[in-house]
Design a protein that fits this description.
The protein is α+β, with helices and mostly antiparallel strands. Helices cover about 40% and strands about 20% of the residues. It contains eight helices and ten strands. The strands form four sheets. The chain has a three-stranded antiparallel β-sheet with strand order 4-3-8. The protein has a three-stranded antiparallel β-sheet with strand order 5-6-7. Strand 5 and strand 6 form a beta hairpin.
Length: about 260
């Protein structure tokens, strides 16, 4: 019986992702562009910045504790472990990587969750005594992480895209940890609160830009365009096209 169970693979009975890789990649690239826009909104709308900053600061201040499971399995019998020498996880969580302490790490990770609905943490492993243990955690931008769907095993791995060179670095499933607010339409990506109010956020942003352009370009009264002769249709269309090019748009208000 054991030999029989050992050959069983946990695979889905139905396809979980598009079998045609090209279709899947197109959707993932389109999602990457949207994620970059969502993260940029924090620097463009002051109200959103204040909300996200308040949440991330509160999350990063939480004190974490590490416990050793009791033989009884009861929560009240567990023992808290505080000595870093007793378990490497204590040191790792205090400083996830050489450049960040825990608070900075948590702030960055929570920013991504609030803005995009997911975060991505690249895990570096170290082999000790025949075992592979994590020794560094790096929060990376979720728009640079692309999950690679598998029709029957759900997830084959990830690809990280470098910011300058565009180099694609393949990652195993264990090398990338993700926390997501589940997207009901896409099991591979998250859905954050900003997506649901993006139209309202854009309205606030564009209103602020229009107001700034109003004062920058002055508030002089409009005038009348007068031509010495009658314009034919072609000349009129050219005049209107040139006028739109010079004056149409939020950035050209009251020009």
């Amino acid at each position: 019986m054991r030999s029989l169970l050992g050959t069983i693979v946990n695979r889905s009975q139905v396809p979980l992702s598009p079998r045609r890789a090209r279709e899947g990649w197109f959707n993932l690239i389109r999602r990457s562009n949207q994620d970059e826009r969502l993260m940029r909104t924090m620097s463009e709308v002051g109200t959103l910045f204040a909300i996200v900053n308040r949440i991330t600061t509160a999350v990063s201040k939480v004190d974490w504790h590490f416990y050793q499971t009791a033989a009884s399995g009861l929560k009240e019998d567990r023992i808290e472990v505080t000595d870093p020498k007793a378990h490497p996880m204590i040191s790792l969580w205090a400083r996830p990587n050489p450049m960040m302490n825990r608070r900075r790490f948590m702030e960055m990770a929570e920013q991504h969750v609030d803005l995009v609905g997911e975060n991505a943490i690249v895990v570096s492993h170290l082999g000790i005594g025949g075992k592979s243990i994590p020794f560094e955690l790096w929060p990376v931008r979720p728009d640079r992480i692309t999950p690679i769907p598998d029709p029957y095993e759900f997830l084959a791995g990830f690809v990280y895209t470098a910011p300058d060179s565009g180099e694609r670095v393949p990652l195993e499933v264990r090398e990338c940890l993700r926390i997501m607010m589940p997207d009901p339409r896409d099991p591979y990506r998250g859905l954050g609160p900003v997506q649901s109010i993006l139209t309202d956020i854009d309205s606030v942003k564009y209103s602020a830009q229009w107001n700034r352009a109003f004062f920058e370009n002055s508030a002089e009264p409009g005038g009348i365009v007068q031509v010495p002769t009658t314009l034919n249709d072609k000349e009129f269309d050219r005049l209107r096209s040139q006028w739109d090019e010079d004056h149409k748009g939020v950035a050209k208000a009251h020009r």
